[in-house]
Here is the input.
Amino acid sequence: MDLSLFVWRQQAPDVQGEMVAYSAKGISEDMSFLEMLDVVNEGLISNGEVPIAFDHDCREGICGTCSQVINGVPHGPMERTTVCQLHMRNFKDGDTIFIEPLRAKAFPILKDLIVDRGALDRIIQEGGYISVHTGGVPDANSVLISRKDAETAMDASECIGCGACVAACPNGSAMLFTASKVSHLAALPQGKIEADQRVRSMTNAMKKEQFGNCSNHYECNAVCPKGVKISFIAKLNREFIKSMISGDSSD
Amino acid sequence: MINGKCPPGPLEEKWEKHKDGLMLVNPANKRRYRIIVVGAGLAGASAASTLGELGYNVEAFCFQDSPRRGHSIAAQGGINAAKNYPNDGDSIFRLFYDTIKGGDFRSREANVYRLASISNNIIDQCVAQGVPFARDYAGYLDNRSFGGAQVSRTFYARGQTGQQLLIGAYSALSRQIKSGTVRFFPRTEMLDLVVVDGSAKGIIYRDLVSGKIASRAADAVCLCTGGYANVYFLSTNAMGSNVTAAFRAYKRGALFANPCYTQIHPTCVPVTGDHQSKLTLMSESLRNDGRVWVPVVKGDERLPRDISEDERDYFLERRYPGFGNLTPRDIASRAAKDACDKGYGVGPGGRGVFLDFAEAIGRLGEAEVRRRYGNLFDMYQKITGEDAYERPMRIYPAPHYTMGGLWVDYNLESNIKGLFVLGEANFSDHGANRLGASALMQGLADGYFIIPYTIADHLARIKPGVVSTDHEAFVGSVKETNERVEKLLSINGKRSVTDYHRDLGAIMWDLVGMERSEDGLNEAIKKIRALRNEFWDNVKITGEPDELNQELEKAGRVADFLEFGELMALDALERKESCGGHFRSEYQTVDGEALRDDSNYAHVSAWEYKGTDKRPFLHSEPLEFENVDLVMRSYK
Here is the structure.
């Protein structure tokens, strides 16, 4: 199939970018979306042009590196599918496709489709862990965890940190991302001990990093390639309120 | 003669006694020592966080944009441990024995026993960190079986075990970054190792955003930079996975051990065309419930459901009744290739075999199969457009893991003092073939529980901060690295980096892949040299050195693969036996199994760099077996 592409090109963070038209010819339906871009890039290189820069690594939908907005939707048209797992059989010959970076105040563009998502790491650094040192821990079966709680923790922990939720949100909120980590750890007995402090400091970090508040549009859940549930945001809010009532709020 | 420095004494006491003899660094002195950790997969993240917790001054680097993305994240099936929770006869000795046998008796007894004995601590640690392993209805941890074992000892988190373990290690690392013990440098790539008077003293790296070549000095360097399966171009590795850091260390004098030991994984989604950029693994855990078969009649193009039971050859069950579909990877891969080579393959080009779940769905119900493997079935559907609940998957072997790596002694220290190598990047624990669910175990064992002890023994013997980046070794190396970048960009030829990588991959797959021969290996060496020469004359890289330039990144990695591929072929040529993943067509039994030569090849081959286009020098470390008999591996 042959496609018309419009791709965001931006040479560096402080340079004005623009949408540039390209054509992708002879694309097979078995290709992934990124393999289609590989073909376009090989053509650019052979013409002596600079290829389109885009983030990608595992190409099997788990590392969370790939991050593109396709026709206005982070990760494109298929539900629960990262860009790298999106295959060209979902497009038609003659389609026009618009490709942009994840856009959010907290994600500055580095080049073309590549953004800096370091703000998400900094949220995790503010408490997205259980404060345990290596060694000196009890036997793994000494603390029993109900299957239900383990499954809830796993549901929340499926987040791959891609940032699509932020780009989809009209407010550029990182609530779903933060909620997934807070909910993962709050579901487990090992994580409950620090739950109050964790939710407060991670929420503060979100604000500090210039993410907006939840806009209740649920766009985050709609684009999440792992289907992280919106109910975790409600859980985040409950944990936050609980921490204000019962916790030590001195910090 | 190189010495692995395995401690003497009974197997089960070696590590405990060895630890007691290692020197310690006083708590107040630890912060004065700087340790560089390169790579942020399981080995790197666990090492950096644990060393940070101990109070060392850690600087950690990775080429990804975040330390949560190393390719350990893609490990699906699970992690082994000898907990014996199912009461099915497991023990540390059995895990040790299965692992050393699985590796076809080409690894050190002492290392493998230590790995097995640490395995239980890893599970405890991960549960304490909040890793949501699968549990039964009473709240206890669940286990499943994996290839090469007759017990259920694999702990798992759906089909995303690697992801969950890495997020655990990343969480611990994030805590140390916050506390200031670890300084993290994302989007950086190590391009050289700095060695001063025989000791590793720092690294040269490229800031992948600004393009600037910079350096950091340290008192020890830990390479946790993964494996080199991308030498085959198509592999299950991430696109960025590369040999560069390890190969640069090799060029600075570190020995490279057993480079020909590569693992071809049996259950991957088959190739669809020339556009293919990578291959996707379907977890080995699928072989618990999936049955592998091909039609009895060559070129049978009927739908699989129209082929009756007596028209199917369940070739693994037939050839290896003892282990059936759960034979080790090297054996399952070769059997699949054998079936396809003989014309029984299915799908495009006959390069595939069926992995069928119909029996499991009948026995367990679709809901249970979905619970166990749902994400893998979803992934399969996205790639192929086929529903594996309705029709069998098609699978074919693909390069996956590399058992070879930088040579290390029992302390995980290379022959260069102060250079430690962890995880897949080292050669130590898997011999000639790695069993499923053992890579996660090894990466975390090295990072959480071995390096914290052994690195202290190195640091306690040296003064901290003696060498700075003003040293001529740093200045010289920065200059050389800049010159190499300029050289790559100046060639301005006709063919792209990916073109060369694809060509190299074809040579490696055909001639240094699942089956190797003397003639083929000699031909490979000739072809790789010619391709390398052409690359340095005719590669075309656009863009500038001082900007984010992904083609330039790729070019540096492919340039190293073009040298490294030759070393693999040379090692395969020198090892005149078949063992594990290294199968030489000249050395096989009458029924086509690998034929080892224990009297001549029960050793580690460790190569010393002598200059580009010069033959490297082969060192050999004998492997001594005091606790196991070297038997012919049988899974029948």
User: Anything to note?
Assistant: Strands of chain A lie at 3-9, 18-24, 68-70, 73-74, 96-101, 109-111, 114-115. The mean pLDDT of chain A is 96. The longest strand of chain A covers residues 3-9.
